[in-house]
């Protein structure tokens, strides 16, 4: 169909309809006049035949006009049928789907194979994580939670990172801002060298020889890294095969779970054998509907928002109230000469240190995320859930304790 302005379309359609019916009308009149002229004689017959020929010529011209307009507008009948079919689908499919959903899903339904502690699942599998999620699905919150629980120095490779992204990390460990793929490629090459060194050290001195060199490596938008960085694919594959043994945990983030997106063309087995696939948001719901064929699970995931997602093929519900239930006895804390816990010896980052300093200045008071956001611009850009993760992580390490649950979770110095 040729490009027409909407203001011209109606006029062209009217002209096309008029020309088409004029042709058929002229044809019928011409045939009628010829039939009438056949029964006449003399001058009357000549006049009737003349009118018939004139009418037929008018019809021919109208037919030519209709063809030109049809070329301009495209196949009108075909387009009309397609539009009607689209209109029908638009107005009937959601109704049918809604009827199926309401009839099939129980509001109180709970999955039998529910995972409540994804970290325990991941550690038990001794795998890395491939995180599948889009904007607003909670990737940052889940990544922060996972890094605190697994531990190690956190390093992020993110070419699109904004100033407020990853603000809970030491910024020297956020590599590749402003599309600096060269820096990412070099750092990944260094990671591969580091892995080789760890293999030699552990071979000579056992696990003690590599103590304190744990790292949590994050590859954001990994398909882009694969395209732009020569070392991205071997970086992921070599760490996938050997990294966990040498305390080098990797988390690769993408918006699709194909092997190609992770630089594993033709090697899907490595993706599924070395990685736990965590699907957030719509990706999890789509997987439940299309792959698992489970509409109940799809609706259950949707009802839970960001708290519910899929870990491999199993449903997971991660409630913040479960994150900070550890007590101070769960993690050893180094002590100073006086016996008082010294959090600085735990290598606190600047955010944790600010929280600890606030707690010392306000002994016995419960610090909430809202108070912290108002007290310092250091936490500007953080979500309350991200701050509560820091509270829970401090408590897990024996620094202070948490009180409350969910969005009421707070922390206080003890």
UniProtKB/TrEMBL annotation:
It comes from the Bacteria. The chain crosses the membrane at residues 21-38. InterPro entries: P-loop_NTPase. Keywords: Membrane, Transmembrane, Transmembrane helix. This is Uncharacterized protein. It comes from Dendronalium phyllosphericum CENA369. The lineage of its organism: Bacteria, Bacillati, Cyanobacteriota, Cyanophyceae, Nostocales.
């Amino acid at each position: 169909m040729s490009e027409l302005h909407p203001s011209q379309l109606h006029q062209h359609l009217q002209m096309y309809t008029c020309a088409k019916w004029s042709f058929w009308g002229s044809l019928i009149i011409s045939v009628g006049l010829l039939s009438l002229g056949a029964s006449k004689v003399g001058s009357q017959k000549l006049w009737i035949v003349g009118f018939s020929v004139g009418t037929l010529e008018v019809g021919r011209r109208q037919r030519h006009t209709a063809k030109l307009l049809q070329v301009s507008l495209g196949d009108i009948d075909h387009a009309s049928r397609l539009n009607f079919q689209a209109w029908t689908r638009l107005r009937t499919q959601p109704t049918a789907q809604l009827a199926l959903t309401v009839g099939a899903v129980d509001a109180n339904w709970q999955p039998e194979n529910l995972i409540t502690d994804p970290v325990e699942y991941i550690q038990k599998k001794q795998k890395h994580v491939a995180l599948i999620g889009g904007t607003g699905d909670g990737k940052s919150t889940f990544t922060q939670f996972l890094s605190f629980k697994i531990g190690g120095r956190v390093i992020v490779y993110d070419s699109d990172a904004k100033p407020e992204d990853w603000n809970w990390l030491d910024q020297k460990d956020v590599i590749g801002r402003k599309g600096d793929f060269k820096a990412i490629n070099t750092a990944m090459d260094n990671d591969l060298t580091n892995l080789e060194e760890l293999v030699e050290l552990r071979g000579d001195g056992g696990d003690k020889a590599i103590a304190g060199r744990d790292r949590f490596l994050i590859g954001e938008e990994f398909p882009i890294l694969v395209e732009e960085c020569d070392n991205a694919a071997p970086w992921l594959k070599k760490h996938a095969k050997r990294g966990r043994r040498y305390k080098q945990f990797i988390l690769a983030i993408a918006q699709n779970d194909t092997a190609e997106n992770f630089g594993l063309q033709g090697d899907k087995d490595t993706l599924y054998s070395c990685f736990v696939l965590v699907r957030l948001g719509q990706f999890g719901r789509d997987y439940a509907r299309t792959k698992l064929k489970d509409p109940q699970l799809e609706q259950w995931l949707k009802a839970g928002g960001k708290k519910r997602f899929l870990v491999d093929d199993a449903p997971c519900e991660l409630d913040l109230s479960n994150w900070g239930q550890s007590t101070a006895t769960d993690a050893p804390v180094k002590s100073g000469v006086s016996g008082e816990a010294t959090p600085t010896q735990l290598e606190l980052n600047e955010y944790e240190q600010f929280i600890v300093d606030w707690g010392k200045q306000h002994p016995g008071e419960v610090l909430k995320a809202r108070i912290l956001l108002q007290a310092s611009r250091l936490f500007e850009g953080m979500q309350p859930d991200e701050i509560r993760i820091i509270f829970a992580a401090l408590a897990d390490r024996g620094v202070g304790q948490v009180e409350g649950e969910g969005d009421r979770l707070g922390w206080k110095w003890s």
